[in-house]
């Protein structure tokens, strides 16, 4: 197509004939009065708009490094949507910055899945009102392997797992623990290996099967895969298997989850006399997963 010459003179256009007047039509019908059905439609529309806005906010939070999930209204979080769900008031979390030029653990260019951030900075901080567990502070923030293995109930399991950690080249463990006013105790352990391949091997070799955990935790008789854990709480790129102790439980009911992200395995444990509550456990697992992703 040739470009039109906008500067060339044009012939005058013929005058536009006048438009004949349009005869008046019948009067427009009056707008109906708002009845019960119209009011209901408006309420439904407002509810849809509120939910759409909440989903948009949650999606934005999920792609940010600032984890505002800890400050959102309960009904804005799928899977944690009741007025009295018992969530904890965590500080607003920000993932520490990566060293210049270093990819994240899940980046395609990072084939080893290396966490280039100091693992001690990736352990979830305690929520407001928590009492710190000094036993898990370790020396300079690194925990002795024996303290970690004390989470497991059976001596033979501890011996087997200890050797497996040695064989797979465990580098170090970072941990944190706390107790809430209602008696809920939380322990988080981050175990770092050389590559993501080692972590994948741990899961493939049965560290966390889909039925029940390979190693029984201290204070439990039997745990099973937690089928009630909400699918919406999944964090992309982080492998997660969660378990809950079956009834009757011991002095405390225990919930725990294994997470796999790049070169790191995490164990999150919560226990409470009278029943470990699902929502704060799920909240803790999600936030820890996001710090590792």
Would you mind describing this structure in some detail?
This protein is an alpha+beta fold and 293 residues long. It has helices spanning 36-62, 145-149, 155-167, 196-204, 278-292; strands at 66-67, 93-94, 131-132, 172-179, 185-192, 223-225, 239-245, 253-261, 264-272. It is globular. The two termini are 53 Å apart. 29% of the residues are buried.
Largest sheet: 7 strands, antiparallel
- Strand order within the widest sheet? 3-4-5-9-8-7-6
Q: Which runs of at least 5 residues are low in confidence (pLDDT < 50)?
A: 1-83
Total helix count? 5
In N-to-C order, the SSE pattern is: HEEEHHEEHEEEEH
N- and C-termini, Cα separation: 53 Å
Q: Summed up, what is this model?
A:
By secondary structure, the protein is α+β, with helices and mostly antiparallel strands.
Topology record:
Elements: H1 36-62, E1 66-67, E2 93-94, E3 131-132, H2 145-149, H3 155-167, E4 172-179, E5 185-192, H4 196-204, E6 223-225, E7 239-245, E8 253-261, E9 264-272, H5 278-292
Antiparallel strand pairs: 1-2, 3-4, 4-5, 5-9, 6-7, 7-8, 8-9
How would you describe this structure in keywords?
seven-stranded antiparallel β-sheet, 9 strands, two-stranded antiparallel ribbon, disordered N terminus, 24% helix
